[in-house]
Amino acid sequence: xxxxxxxxxxxxxxxxxxxxxxxxxxxxxxxxxxxxxxxxxxxxxxxxxxxxxxxxxxxxxxxxxxxxxxxxxxxxxxxxxxxxxxxxxxxxxxxxxxxxxxxxxxxxxx
Length: 110
Prior knowledge:
Layout: E1 2-8, E2 13-17, E3 25-30, H1 35-38, E4 46-53, E5 66-73, E6 76-82, H2 88-96, E7 103-109
Antiparallel strand pairs: 1-7, 2-3, 3-4, 4-6, 4-7, 5-6
């Protein structure tokens, strides 16, 4: 099943490159009572995508973004990054870039 959730920051989850699914990002810990826990995110969920602020993302991954229409804050553009087969640091940068917005939209598979 695929689920999309909007999670306030800080998220309160730990992710890493999956040991079970090559090229995918897996949730390995969820802090009890955290925003991630309240959103229903569970250990073992596979992160398939996240929003991020495009100006904060490493240049190398910018061509991978599908830019969302009509969502801009100043000169920063909110973009969606599919996370499959992406560099882990790029995924972390995208996740962290949501901090100033106060929320991240995450797509999970379980």
